[in-house]
Amino acid sequence: MARSCSHLILILGFALLFSSTAHAQGVKKKEHSPQKATIMSACLPGLGQIYNGKWWKVPIVYAGFGGFGYLAYTNYRDYRTYLNAYKIKTGDLDEGVTPTEKELYLASIYQEGQLQTYKESYRHDFELFCIILVAWYGLNVVDATVDGHLYSYDISDDLSLAVDPAFSLPSAPNLAFAGSRQTGLTLSFKF
């Protein structure tokens, strides 16, 4: 299943890559759409980055999903283990549920309060990583949107800073500086 999903992602990525190069050879230049990048990235994370030409970000996107997903999974697994150990210790284990050796061992070495603390800690971490996963998904979409808007932004090397002297005479209401001139520098950025 995972292998077929990865093949599907690769096929979609190559299809998108080759379709954009085929259109680039035509006479009419197609307009880049930030909205399209947003929708693509919302439907399949990383696809908006490919559309924007930032294909190098795709491994970062999926590394985040993989890492945070793994942490969420392991915390959920440990939460279930300590929950069952807590239920064994309190005698509330559901009928038909066979405890594992690890759950029996944990119930034998920890007190009820300790199992409760560990269980709640793992539950908290699981929920935290689920929230981080949703935020990572949102960050993926926002990144594709911002890159889509900045796709045709001109980044030229024509940046300059002009430093000029400045002189001014005091105005009539400003009596503190009456009769004196003010001198200074003006900085002008040209881009």
Helix content: 55-70%
β-strand percent reads: 5-15%
Order of helices and strands: HHHHHHEE
**Strand count, sense and closure of the main sheet?**
2 strands, antiparallel
Query: Given the C-alpha coordinates, what overall shape results?
Result: elongated
Q: What's the average pLDDT?
A: 83
How far from one another are the termini?
Answer: 52 Å
Structural class comes to: mainly alpha
What report would you give on this structure?
The protein has about 190 residues and is mostly helical. The protein has a domain at about 65-150. It is about 60% helix and about 10% strand. Strands 1-2 form a two-stranded antiparallel sheet. Helix 2 (about 35-45) runs antiparallel to helix 6 (about 110-150), helix 4 packs across helix 5 and helix 4 runs antiparallel to helix 6 (about 110-150). The longest helix is centred in the C-terminal third of the chain and has 38 residues, at about 110-150.
